[in-house]
Amino acid sequence: MAFPPVYGPDSRTLIVGTWPSPKSREQGFFYGHPQNRFWPLLARLLGAPVPQSVPEKKALILTHGLALWDTIESCTITGASDASIRDVVPADIAGLARKAPIRRVLCNGATAYRLYEKYSRVPGLEAVKLPSTSPANAAWTMDKLAAAWGNYLGEKAAPGAERL
């Protein structure tokens, strides 16, 4: 089950993952696995408390000019293994970019980036491959993730990178 995109009239940066994990599907929202560092990372970079409920998570995204979606509308997958993804039907990211003022796509991990580039690339939108917040990406500590993602989000945004 794919989730609809979270976006608003001020959403300038779209963060995309691949496909909801079993825990996310169980909870009915993006990044639902308790060990995924997505929500704590965003909260840290945006100077906000870690959201707990779906409404709090949506508010964090929308308050900071972000949008959130996945690169895949539907697929065949085994468990949460991105490596097993096949039969991909891509999400209509170009359609979303026509509805919101999206200028940049931040890909949460190499697989999200690869899928975005293969199926959904939107001409004129900068696409950035960032390290995955998945607990499977244990080599990246929270501090390392914050340094990489902080170049594009929050107070640490690099000079020349449009701050959100």
TrEMBL record:
Q: Which InterPro entries match?
A: Hypoxan-DNA_Glyclase, Uracil-DNA_glycosylase-like, Uracil-DNA_glycosylase-like_sf
Keyword Ubl conjugation annotated: no
Question: Keywords on this record?
Answer: Glycosidase, Hydrolase
The enzyme's first-digit EC class, named in words, is hydrolase
Question: Which residue range or ranges hold the Uracil-DNA glycosylase-like domain?
Answer: 4-153
Q: What EC identifiers does the entry list?
A: 3.2.2.15
Which GO-annotated molecular functions does the record name?
DNA-deoxyinosine glycosylase activity
List the protein's name.
DNA glycosylase
Q: Which organism is it from?
A: Ruthenibacterium lactatiformans
